[in-house]
Amino acid sequence: MQTPTNPVEAVRHPDPYPYYARLTAERPFGWDERLQAWVAADAASVTAALSAAELRVRPPGEPVPTGLLGTAAGAVFGDLVRMTDGPDQQRLKQVVLDALGEAEPAEAGKLAAERTRQSLERAGGPGFEELMFQVPARVVAALCGLDAGLEPEAARLVGDFVQCIPAGATAEQQRAAAEAAARLRELLGPGLTGAEPTGLLAALVRAAGRRDWPRTAPLLANAVGFLSQTYDATAGLIGNSLLALREQPAGDLAALAREVARHDAPIQNTRRFAAEPWRFGAATVQPGQAVLVVLAAANRDPAANPDPHAFDPARPAPSCFTFGAGPHRCPGADLAVAITAGVLDELLAHGFEAAALPAGPSYRALANARIPLL
């Protein structure tokens, strides 16, 4: 297969890492004419971009995609801490962080193993799509306090909702996302406003009280966000960890998953948009311009991680940009790792043979998530 011509093509390339290494060494921060965006590739520029107050997670003139305005999906999207900036975002982010801090990774891992076992017993074999996408969503639904009977519906709905997040979402995908968001709010709402909230939803209520956060709608939106942020990232982490087992011993599975997150990042890049001029080195990013932040390249920067191309689950204090940095760092890294380890552990207990997986799989045609087709 040809060498990628830009970092978006690289996401689904069988081996994008030589390309990323050249990019990091030769053009760590620069303008990409084809993408019409600045590209941050090395650890220094990625760290700076993710922390820059002048850069936003959404285009300043379009905080919510136009096709979602006036819909339930637009209301949820506009309140997600992942998709907003500013003082209110930081206050709400602290509420979300507090709530997630009450989640027990060990419980998530146990739930992941149980849901994996159920899937394998029902299907009679490893249905990888279900294990990668449905199991993590069902685990988070359970952590939110949903009844087991509602978990499959919640998992299906979140799959519809996340289709509205990419910039290239079609009108049909946006309509499906709007319907899914409305139903997800119906499913999760009672857990926030009922007399006895449970799980992560109860933790959100408690955290909001401690932080004097008065509004319920953003809490409900971020309850949906617990599910949506699990979807592609954890699917990619599970899939890439399964592939890693072709070459790596099945020892400490949580350590393996953490190293996969760095070495073969499930989320390869993210974007930022300049609201004000941002200067980095000799370059100035003008308002309205975009920065493609290549997390996977920074993970392999020798300045961030010695011998970065080696796969080492025992690597001491690795620098991993996959879950972001700065005000939008994803707080769910430990849960994603625990869920992945739970899925792997149960698969191995059922006799899974990683050698049976393709040596050079294809990947979903996505702009930022690296998810193998198994």
TrEMBL record:
<protein>
    <submittedName>
        <fullName>Cytochrome p450 oxidoreductase</fullName>
    </submittedName>
</protein>
<keyword id="KW-0503">Monooxygenase</keyword>
<keyword id="KW-0479">Metal-binding</keyword>
<dbReference type="InterPro" id="IPR002397">
    <property type="entry name" value="Cyt_P450_B"/>
</dbReference>
<keyword id="KW-0560">Oxidoreductase</keyword>
<dbReference type="GO" id="GO:0016705">
    <property type="term" value="F:oxidoreductase activity, acting on paired donors, with incorporation or reduction of molecular oxygen"/>
</dbReference>
<dbReference type="GO" id="GO:0005506">
    <property type="term" value="F:iron ion binding"/>
</dbReference>
<dbReference type="InterPro" id="IPR036396">
    <property type="entry name" value="Cyt_P450_sf"/>
</dbReference>
<keyword id="KW-0408">Iron</keyword>
<dbReference type="GO" id="GO:0020037">
    <property type="term" value="F:heme binding"/>
</dbReference>
<keyword id="KW-0349">Heme</keyword>
<dbReference type="InterPro" id="IPR017972">
    <property type="entry name" value="Cyt_P450_CS"/>
</dbReference>
<comment type="similarity">
    <text>Belongs to the cytochrome P450 family.</text>
</comment>
<dbReference type="InterPro" id="IPR001128">
    <property type="entry name" value="Cyt_P450"/>
</dbReference>
<dbReference type="GO" id="GO:0004497">
    <property type="term" value="F:monooxygenase activity"/>
</dbReference>
<dbReference type="Pfam" id="PF00067">
    <property type="entry name" value="p450"/>
</dbReference>
